[in-house]
Amino acid sequence: MRRYRYRCTLCRTTSPVTLGAADLAAETEAHRQTIHGGHIPDDERTGEIDRLGRWYTALTPLTALHARIADELSDLRDEKTMGHYWWATAGAALLIAAGAALALLLVVSVL
Asked: How many angstroms separate the CA atoms of 78 and 86, rounded?
């Protein structure tokens, strides 16, 4: 399940977490209409976040991969909460390490 958040840097406010793109658009439009009279503030930010509340665009590629895997594993247990379960974090690290080991094994076997 994807989680989204809207950030208005002009007002210095951040929306609550929404669980769909349509909910995010409604939240964004409601903020623009009520606070800014329909105008679009400069430097506003909308995007997808992980279960820890971090913007995916602000993460390094490896960290984003780990967060995405841990999010999906955590969603198997409970889709609507925030935060990672310890086993999901460990499982994500194990999957990434196994993928790296397999890639290394493939390269060594080819050479």
From this structure: 14
Asked whether the CA dihedral 92, 96, 101, 102 is positive or negative, the reply is: positive
- pTM beyond 0.85: no
Is the pLDDT reported for residue 97 higher than 80? yes
Q: Any idea of the CA torsion for 46, 47, 49, 53, to the nearest 10 degrees?
A: -10
Amino acid at 90: A
CB 106 within 8 A of CB 74: no
CA dist., res. 9 & res. 46, Å (int):
11
Rounded Cα distance, 76 and 44, in Å: 32
CA-CA distance, 60 to 8, in Å (whole number)? 23
Structure tokens at 50: 């992980």
Query: Which pLDDT band holds residue 111 (cuts at 50, 70, 90)?
Result: confident
110 DSSP assignment:
H
Whether residue 93 has pLDDT greater than 90: yes
Measured in residues, the chain has a length of 111
